[in-house]
Amino acid sequence: MMIKVGDKLPEATFSQLTADGMKNPTTSEIFAGKKVVLFAVPGAFTPTCSASHLPGYIAFADQIKAKGVDAIVCTAVNDAFVMKAWADSQNAEEITFLADGGASFHKAIDLTMETGEFGGLRSQRYAMIVEDGVVTLLNVEAPKSFEVSKAEVVLAAL
After folding, report:
1. Which of 15, 16, 25, 67 lies in disulfide reach of 99, CB 3.0 to 4.6 Å?
2. Active-site positions?
3. 3-state DSSP of the chain
């Protein structure tokens, strides 16, 4: 069953390539005691994700954080090396990039989609606000849409 507002995020482990090497932060470490904006994309370097979705969060990062948000996190069913390369190519220093290479987190919250030859199992496009591990806003895009998970929409909801 898909996660919903009021649910606590399940325990999961991500991969993150940092200047200090590979890290494996958990949902507890990322979300406990914090207000976090989490958004997911079907894939790094894909057209809408690179041209619109991520750039919006980069552009509005300061305004989002000014609303009491401790972190802005981007996740995708990609590996940590791809996520790091994408972050670097977009100059996205204000965003934390977490890889869910095996889709375990996205399976646990039931927000996956099968894309066949495009890339197999991927994350749906969504944005959520998470406070101390509990979802307080969840905006999931309809297939092939990009409306409700935009940075501007999340900023307006904060």
Report:
1. 15
2. 49
3. CCCCCCCECCCCECEEEECCEEECCEHHHHHCCCEEEEEECCCCCCHHHHHHHHHHHHHHHHHHHHCCCCEEEEEECCCHHHHHHHHHHHCCCCEEEEECCCCHHHHHCCCEEECHHHCCEEECCEEEEEECCEEEEEEECCCCCCCCCCHHHHHHHC
